[in-house]
Structure formats: structure tokens, C-alpha cells
Amino acid sequence: MRAFFFGLGFSSINATRAMRQGGFTPIGGTVRSAEKAAQLRSGDIDAVLFDGTAPGPAVGDALATTSHVILSIAPDEHGDPVLRHHRADLDAAGQLQWLCYYSTVGVYGDFDGDWIDETAPLVPRNMRSDRRVLAEQAWRDYAAERGVPLCILRLAGIYGPGRSTFDKLRAGTARRVIKPGQVFNRIHVADIARVTALAAERRLGGTFNLADDEPAPPQDVIAYAAQMIGMDVPPDLPIETAEMTPMQRSFYRDNKRVSNRAIKQALGIDMLYPNYRMGLAHILESKQ
User: Fold this and answer.
1) What is the pLDDT of residues 55-81, one digit of tens each?
2) What is the CATH number of the domain that holds 114?
3) What spatial distance separates the first Cα and last Cα of the chain, rounded to whole Å?
């Protein structure tokens, strides 16, 4: 089993480790810079260049022997860059057995704090999520034409070692923006990695939410993390007076509780870190 990741970012790098433990070898993928490609190749990942604006010169050769492809590149105004530049290479990949697309729970839009699952209508509230909806369907269409299973994982807010509330607190950038009733789901990167590896091994098809069990107000997470590391809790900042970029403000337009029941039932698992308290504790312990 040979895996290839389009977009070797935070989630994908963690997933490569879980997949290697599951027997996938070799593992390759794309990066945007030669420097990062060299760094990853020194760590036994066959990284090649692809920046999304033109075909990657070595991607076709890499796909020729690939069985499992994981897609972690966001669509742009022209659609999905992988389908745009490498559809023919995927068509020619004679050993292809499985596709996985990392999407986002942002495709659902706002449900005023209600619980939703994968049957909820898609009413995205911003251009980024609109593009994700279109990209999801483009990959469904391609997988159906190609005759291989496609697993779409709709990810909640991603965090993990090196990318958590602790880092924002220590950098002085954590802000407790208060919007009454607002909650978010999160997902620890280790759960993304584990689910990706298990789904790949079983060639799981379908669309699944990948979120924790306990959606929570963002200010609660910051306060809890600050107390864990003995820092002052940042003051409350009402959303009406908070300075935010349009992207930051768009996150607060969506308020929902996302169920992860389907993926847990499909794989017969529970989340490694079902709530932010357990996830943060693991991050803190891993740095001791």
C-alpha cells in the first residue's frame, strides 16, 4: 500500500506517521517549496513540488505506483487545483484504490447552536466554504467515474502540539472573544491521523464529520489552558468591540454542535481526545 498526500501540511504530516505504522510504504506528497521538500525527504517522505498554479513535474511519476491518495489542498476561485492540473495523472494511476478529501465543517454554515450530523443541509456562509462544497462534489463525481471509494472527512477546528491555545497564550495573541451562546467543535491532529490511517486501511467510502465529542465556547478553552500553565486568563472581549479580520469574523457567524457519531460507528472507535481538556492535557504532557 503506497500513499500520496496532495498538501503535506500539519494534518497530513501527522497522518503520514500513522499510516506508516499501519504498513503504508513508501509515503509521498506535495509541498510548495524545494526547502521543505528536502527537509521531508530527509525524514523518509518522498516529497515533490506542486504549488497549485501549474502541474508538479514529478507528481505523475509518483502517482503511477500509488494506491491511496489523500487530498489536503484548499480549492481556489478556479476550483480544485489537483483536479485542474493532475486529473490525467490520476486517470493513469493504475493501482489507485482509494481517495480521501479533507474538507471542513464550515460547509454546513450556521445552525444557531443546534446539533447536526452529515444529513444537515449545506448552507455555507462564506466564499471559502462555498468552494469546499463545490470541491466535495467534484471529487464525488471523479471517484464515481474512476470507480474507487472516496472518503470525505469534514474537519472541525484543528489543534495539536505546536498549534494550540498554549502557543497563542505564550505568544500573547490569545483573545477571549465573547459571543453569548457561541460554541465550536475541535479535533486533535492525532485523531485526524488515526482516522485517516484506519479509513485508508479499510478503504472506507462516504462523507463523515471529524470532530470531538464536546463543542465548547472558545473563551472556556482559553481560560482552561491559561490555568493549566499558570498564566493570567485574558480579559473578556465582547464580539461587538473586538477587532477581527473578515476571516476571523466569519468563523463566529457559524454556531453549531457537530456530531461525530457516524465516523465512530463506521470505524468502531472512540476519539483519542474527545474533548479539549484531554487534548490540551496530552499536548502539555508531550512537552514535559
Assistant:
1) 999 999 999 999 999 999 999 999 999
2) 3.40.50.720
3) 35
Cell of 82: 489537483
Tens of pLDDT, residues 223-236 = 999 999 999 999 99
Q: Output the CA angle 264-267-272, nearest 5 degrees.
A: 55
Q: Per the confidence metrics, is the pTM higher than 0.85?
A: yes
Parent domain of 83: 3-159+186-212+257-272
The span from the CA of 186 to the CA of 252, in Å, is 14
242: in domain = no
